[in-house]
Amino acid sequence: MRHLKMFSVETAGDVVILQPRGEGGGFRYQDLHAEVSSVRTFLIRPEHKHLVVDLTLMDYFGSEFIGALVSMLRETKTRGGKACFCGAMPQMLEVLSNMSLTKLWPHFDTREEALAEVQKA
Predict the structure, then answer these.
(1) Residue 93: exposed, middle, or buried by beta-carbon count in 10 A (0-12, 13-18, 19+)?
(2) How many Å apart are CA 83 and CA 76, to the nearest integer?
(3) Which of 1, 23, 57, 59 has a CA 20 to 30 Å removed from the CA of 89?
(4) CB atoms < 10 A from the CB of 34, how many?
């Protein structure tokens, strides 16, 4: 996953940690969907059960970007895994809350808290 420009992808056991990089509103549609496709292919591997979306590097994201994140979060939930957000700045957390996304996938202040939550048995 080193070839990605918009996302950083790490693993911690069976958890995939997805960290968007840059300004989420400034991505080109085609580039975004190509990278999301690569990430989704990685996510559906049997050894990858859970997903943490770390938003610490984002200060804005547009609707296309939110839609891409939601598709990956839904995919994780559909496969029986847990998913959540972490590290959102106050304005981004407000956007997630206003869209009721934090009701579907909780938000945690830190990556460590998020990892602890999804790794609970």
Answers:
(1) middle
(2) 7
(3) 1
(4) 14
Q: Which amino acid would we find at residue 66?
A: I
Q: Give residue-wise pLDDT tens across range 14-69.
A: 999 999 886 555 567 788 888 889 999 999 999 999 999 999 998 877 788 888 89
Q: For residue 54, give the H/E element and its range.
A: strand 50-54
80: left (phi over 0), alpha (psi -120 to 50) or beta: left
Residues 43 and 16 sit within 8 Å (Cβ to Cβ): yes
Which stretch of DSSP H or E encloses residue 10?
strand 7-12
Residue 78: closest CA among 50, 103, 107? 50
Answer yes or no: are the C-beta atoms of 79 and 42 closer than 8 Å: no
